[in-house]
Amino acid sequence: MKFYAAQIDAIAEALLNIFMNGAYADREIARILKADKRRGSKDRAFIAEHTYGVVRYYRLYSHLAGDEPRSKEDWWRLIGIHLLLNGYDELPPWREFAGLDAAEINAQLATARNNRALRESIPDWLDEVGEEQLGADWTATIGALNEQAPVVLRVNRLKSDPATVTTSLAAEGIVVESISGDALLVTERKNLFATKAFKNGLFEVQDFSSQQAAPALEVEPGHTVIDACAGAGGKSLHLAALMQNKGRLLSLDIHGWKLDELKRRARRNGVANLETRPITSSKIIKRLTEKADRVLLDVPCSGLGVLRRNPDAKWKLSPDVIDRVVAEQQQILSGYGRMVKPGGKMVYATCSILPRENERQVEEFLASEAGKDWTLEHRQSFLPQRDGYDGFFVSRLSKTS
Ligand SMILES: C[S@@+](CC[C@H](N)C(=O)[O-])C[C@H]1O[C@@H](n2cnc3c(N)ncnc32)[C@H](O)[C@@H]1O
Q: Are the C-beta atoms of residues 215 and 154 closer than 8 Å to each other?
């Protein structure tokens, strides 16, 4: 397995920007790959995979290197350590890799393994929060959150069906397996976005856990449905398909630019019943009082259930950020529940694994004044080590008629 200095340099540049300049890993990798169009698919995959690899094990590798990286040369050394531990037994005799010895690094690693926070490469505060929140499940959960995430598709029933998508992708060399219903597992990493099936809106890339949110809302064709934290609309698109394009789907978010992206995706998906509206003031919510049969609250959260996809969140989160997000979630639950008609339902969902953001939030809401007309109908949490997909939480509540 050969690699080139230019690849390592691109990874080091991405890491510098992610850790020193606060760039998001996915956007930074996309930027680096776009900057040099001559790169082939293997080259691109190498850069993406190993940038994520170092982001994921930043703390562990810094420990093995003896210090946190500051210069680009330091980042080269971290990348060298990562490669030595990931199947590249010998490194090229480049100056930046001088003194990196596989046997020595493996010996240090054996000692580091006794410390969970170091081994799993997470901040100490996060290890304490995880243990306090998940108890005996935490060790397996954080271990699973460091693995590579599976790639899952959701077939768009407005345009296609699982058999047609499977055949169409096979014609382009992409093999998928059925998970259940409209969910297909991609067995080999390939560029799905370049396929004809994707360009024609036959599927969306969406984790299996996240695909559980829209069906939990029990929408029917003809309903008025509000997706109140719609973002770029992964779940709005699913709702539109379940509504068979009939009725009214209103997608809200505080960020108008995310809704613009949703509009583009909706066109590709053949969605005809969706309207977007940025939340520019509290009046937007007030005017919608008791207007909806169904409301989806896919609230902002710590994102701890999707660390496999966004490993840089480990380094960007803090106890303060989690406290802030928990307060926002309760405000959204109590404020946005007003949009549901008597007899209607709402789903509260997060991509977090912390009961504090999940079960406890729903319990606190039900015990509050705002929650007095509500009953819990269903709740389910998904853990990566147990269920195989992203950490996720979904609950459905119904409002007294
Ligand atoms: C978990 S993301 C939503 C993901 C989206 N539902 C999807 O499936 O692709 C949460 C969204 O809530 C939005 N948000 C944050 N605070 C909000 C608020 N007070 N009201 C409405 N949306 C909010 C964020 O901009 C973000 O897009």
A: no
Kind plus residue range of the DSSP H or E element containing 176: strand 176-180
Kindly indicate whether the ipTM for this predicted assembly is greater than 0.95, answering yes or no.
yes
Q: Hey, what CATH topology would domain 151-205 get?
A: Alpha-Beta Plaits (3.30.70)
Domain 5-121: CATH superfamily, name plus number: NusB-like (1.10.940.10)
Q: Whose CA is nearest to atom 2 of ligand 1?
A: 300
Residue 298 known to bind ligand: yes
Sign, Cα dihedral of 127, 137, 119, 210: negative
Query: Is the distance from the beta carbon of residue 306 to the nearest atom of ligand 1 less than 6 Å?
Result: no
Question: Coil, strand or helix: which one is 371?
Answer: coil
253 is an annotated ligand-binding site residue: yes
What residues does each domain of the chain span? 5-121, 151-205, 210-399
231 alpha carbon – ligand 1 mean position (Å): 5
Rounded Cα–Cα distance for residues 101 and 142 (Å): 28
Q: What is the pLDDT along the chain (401 residues), one digit of tens a residue?
A: 789 999 999 999 999 999 999 999 999 999 999 988 888 888 999 999 999 999 999 999 999 999 999 999 999 999 999 999 999 988 999 999 999 999 999 999 999 999 999 999 999 999 999 999 999 999 999 999 999 899 999 999 999 999 999 999 999 999 999 999 999 999 987 889 999 999 999 999 999 999 999 999 999 999 999 999 999 999 999 999 999 999 999 999 999 999 999 999 999 999 999 999 999 999 999 999 999 999 999 999 999 999 999 999 999 999 999 999 999 999 999 999 999 999 999 999 999 999 999 999 999 999 999 999 999 999 999 999 999 999 999 999 999 99
CATH, domain 210-399, list 3.40.50.150, 3.40.50.720, 3.40.1280.10, 3.40.50.1100: 3.40.50.150
Q: Verify whether ligand 1 is closer than 6 Å to residue 255 (CB atom).
A: yes
Indicate the SS3 state at residue 155: strand
* Any ligand 1 atom below 6 A from CB of 253: yes
**Angle of helix 124-134 versus helix 138-145 axis, rounded to 10:** 130
